[in-house]
Amino acid sequence: MRAKSLLPICGALFLWIVASCETPSSKGADVPCRCGTPMADFEGCAHPTCMNGHRNPANPDCVCGTIEIPHPKGN
Amino acid sequence: MRSLLRPVAFLAAILCLTLAASAATLTLKNGSKIQCKVERYDAATKTLFVRTEAGVAAQYTLDQLDARSVYLVNASLVPPDDAQAQFQVANFARDAELFAHAVRRYSQAEKLDPALKPAVEVEMTKLKRAAAAACMRNARAAVARNDRAEAAKWLSTLVEKLPDEPEAKEAAQLLDQHYAQVRSQKMAAADAKASDELKRDAEKVRKRYDEMVEKSKQGLQARGDSQARGLFEGALADGQAVLGELDALAKKHSDPQVQESAAGYRAVVVEQMVDVHLHIASLETVKSDYRGALRAVNKALSLDPKNERALSARARIEEASSQGWRRWI
Fold first, then answer.
1. Is the CB of B311 less than 8 angstroms away from the CB of A30?
2. CA of B16 to nearest chain A CA: how many angstroms apart?
3. What's the gap in Å between the CA of B161 and the closest CA on chain A?
4. Nearest CA in chain A to B312
5. What pLDDT score does B78 carry?
6. B301 with B99: CB under 8 angstroms?
């Protein structure tokens, strides 16, 4: 009975361990945002946010991804 | 032939179709802002046609616009699943010299509508011409301000990534004046930190390093892939030999200061070896061999795990490989 009640906990623990041991994607890891430099305009920026198709809010020169256009009230 | 002409004619007809007509703020180069709706972009005249809030039709050439901000705003308004709109935004990005963005959007347009392929090919040819011209312009600007490292970077990029463009030949010749000089300056900087005794001992290191640099440069200048690869492999063999020499020197001199100076030499050699691995990765990428390119980049990272250029290259290769995008790494 006790073993049965421990099963979900063990399962959750197992999943957590598997998830934490998973090799993280190397996509853009440790790469700074170079948007706005001629070389990044040429070959693309490898910063994780940019690679995921989003604009990096920390870099005003970043033109990756999309941004929300605020619509004036009443429109 | 007729099957090709039909989509091209169709695209020529829709090239002037409207972009998503949503409200946008355009920023001009003079700093003024205009609230308007973008109606279309005409790539032939590089003109953006808009309608102001008052309902007045207006047009702005690319020269008048702060193209980066216009791209940022309008790209966000374009539906991601509209192939024609993606195609037009790609044209705008190309004309604004946001080449990587343009390539990405051309790929997206083609993926959404495979019938666009012939038109995308035509625009990609124009893009490559424009990108090669931009590379050469950046290289010349760097030469003008005596920044040899920047010049060599643009020249190498042009030779590696756009080898079939007319500027690539000139860039290969210009590498003669900059590539080796930049690297010998790095070695001289390492020399300046070394003791006279270490400098004497490092004579062999310098000689082999110069050979490695020469082979790397010749690899970039080579016209054939196999010749280039052979030269790059030779350069890497030289680099490995230099690292062996440096290990021997480090063992010979136990003084921590000498060890530090030897580490300076090592950093210069490793940087050049990373460069060569990335040159090989570019060769593989041009052939769309992403697996081979990743192998080369991983070798670079095994030498310098935090190397930014290698990490960036790996991320871009992985993306191109997983998304099936065009080669532009």
1. yes
2. 23
3. 9
4. A46
5. 79
6. no
Query: Is A44 within 8 Å of B328 when comparing Cβ atoms?
Result: yes
Cα–Cα distance measured from residue B42 to residue B56, given in angstroms and rounded to the nearest whole number: 18
pLDDT, tens digit, 9 for 90 and up, residues B270-288: 999 999 999 999 999 888 8
Does residue B274 lie within any of the structural domains? yes
Residue keyed to tokens 């921590």? B256
Averaged pLDDT, B25-31: 88
Rounded to the nearest angstrom, the minimum Cα separation between B55 and chain A is 16
C-alpha to C-alpha distance for B223 and B218, rounded to whole angstroms: 10
What is the gyration radius of the CA atoms in chain B, in angstroms?
Answer: 24
Look up the ipTM and state it: 0.78
Residue B41 CA from chain centroid, whole number: 26
Same domain, residue pair B112 and B201: no
Query: Per-residue pLDDT averaged across B199-222, rounded?
Result: 92
Q: Name the domain count of chain B.
A: 2
Size of interface A-B (CB pairs under 8 A): 88
Q: Which of B152, B155, B149 is nearest to B170 (CA)?
A: B155
Choose the final residue of a domain: B128, B153, B181: B128
Has residue B98 been placed in a domain? Answer: yes
Give the count of beta carbons closer than 10 Å to the beta carbon of residue A18: 9
Q: For the whole model, what pTM was predicted?
A: 0.78
pLDDT, tens only, A20-67: 443 444 555 678 999 999 999 999 999 999 988 888 999 988 988 754
**Does B161 fall in a domain?**
no
| Contact residues on chain A for B308, CB-CB shorter than 8 A | 30-32
Chain A residue numbers with beta carbons less than 8 Å from the beta carbon of B328 are 43-44
CB of B328 less than 8 A from some CB of A = yes
User: Does B149 reside within a domain?
Assistant: no
Structural domain harbouring B108: 3-128
Q: Kindly report which listed range (A15-24, B100-109, B118-127) carries the lowest average pLDDT score.
A: A15-24
| Domain boundary pick from B73, B102, B128 | B128
